[in-house]
Amino acid sequence: MSQVEGARLFREAWIAGVREHFPGEPKPGYVTPWEDTPDWERQAADAVYEQVRQLLDVSAGHASRLTSEQKSRFVATCWTAQMFKHFEEPKPGYVADWSDLPEWQRKTDADIFEAVEKSLK
């Protein structure tokens, strides 16, 4: 899968998760289509996709046995690192600890991990 395809898969999994788990109507930025996603966000999506892919690779696929919470924590931590990379002073919500994230976001992050997993089979 190319970098663009991996980043796009990440974004599409995010949007699908938001639509499934977000209570009520999500902010427009949460469901912005790939074509309108800012460059920094595309780069961050690519980096996190690649980190999940690498984790699955170095574990010979056994990282698929992580719990849903562990998968979610991994994606959230990778995303937080990207926010520090792309923003000198990121918004607190961009770098919140996993335990402080809303439930919908934790579920969406687990869904992203699993979407990457499925794409590699």
Question: Would you give an account of this structure?
Answer:
It contains 4 helices and no strands. The termini are close together. The radius of gyration is 13 Å and the shape is globular. The model has no long low-confidence stretch (mean pLDDT 96). The longest helix is centred in the middle third of the chain and has 20 residues, at 39-58. It is an all-alpha fold and 121 residues long.
What sort of overall outline do the alpha carbons produce when their principal axes are compared? Answer: globular
In sequence order, what are the helices and strands, one letter per element? HHHH
Low-confidence stretches: none
What is the percent of helical residues? 55-70%
Separate helix tally: 4
- Gap between N and C termini: 12 Å
Overall number of strands: 0
Assembly category: single chain
| Residue share in β-strands | under 5%
Radius of gyration: 13 Å
Overall pLDDT metric = 96
Largest sheet: none
Q: Count structural domains.
A: 1
Structural class: mainly alpha
Annotation keywords:
globular; 4 helices; 121 residues; mainly alpha; single chain
How would you briefly describe this protein structure?
With about 120 residues, the protein is an all-alpha fold.
Question: What's the layout of helices and strands?
Answer:
Blueprint: H1 3-21, H2 39-58, H3 68-86, H4 103-119
